[in-house]
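note to self — DONT lose this again. spent like an hour looking for the file last time. sequence + predicted structure for the chain T wanted, 355 res
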Amino acid sequence: MREFDTDMSVENPDDEQIRLKWLGRKQGKLKLVSEVWLKAAPVEAKKLLGVSFNDLKARIETQIDGRAAALRGLRDATNFHGSTFVNSIDVTLPGSAQRIGAEHPLIKTQVEIVGVFQRMGYSVGLGPEVENDFNNFESLNFPPNHPARDTQDTLVLAGQESKPLRERLLMRTHTSPVQIRTMLEQAPPLRIVIPGKVHRNEAADATHSPVFHQVEGLCVDTNITFSDLKGTLDHAMKAFFGSAVKTRFFPSFFPFTEPSADVQISCIFCGGKGCRKCKHSGWIELLGCGMVDPAVFEAVNQRRIELGCEPVYDTAKISGFAFGMGVDRIAMMKYGISDIGLLYSGDMRFLEQFA
């Protein structure tokens, strides 16, 4: 059967005009098809031609109805004047405000702390939140029976019992495993600062959360001393809290540093005079630090040998220091937040205060 022109464009986009052009009883194109082909066809061909004719008519009707529906929808969305569509804007309606986002107070605090150490020449180290026992505990001089290994503290992934202890997976309890990963990959000297999220099985209250953030640092080189550690942290605290802040160090204990210390800063709220925030002592405990225990370097050397690498952390030639602080606690101090849960609540009424 001959193909006919199916162009439905007309000068006036009127539904009735299009329908008359194709389906009109007097001058419609389908009437022409019927007269030229269908009526004049031999009897034996009329049945086949009739089926094709009805199929063509149905297809044309479907396209015409679809076009009409589309035009009606367009008329509803715009103003229609004769044959011209004109987009309209109702200037009396309120505009769409483009709200500018802001950093979460935790992220903002973390970025500021990291920036202080970056300006001192430290690079940023990152690592996974799911760690193995070797990186999280064993290499950091935690003996197998250390309390921090207890499941009351550490969230261990299920189904790990069949693996060797050092290969079992857990949610990292500190960002220190990134220190080990970095030393396994790089030879000294090292200066890295490590921000990140950590997990512990703790009950949530106003000052504790099972998820929180830390920033840790590691410096390894020849002739690194405790004086370097004190000078680094004193400068960092002054850069972050202001030049008037003072620091002092008290003996402490951490399995991976020896000697170890807790660092206090003069109260940023009362200037060291004594207030409720510092419990009238004039000082606030802020972070822990110490010189890297030689046992940590030995564990890294042994692991490098197992991985086919050269042991490069010779404790007779190198030394280093490490430190770590809680970002959540510093953010709460800086912004006067009394409940750590607010930082994780997602409450826009709270977060909008920092926009």
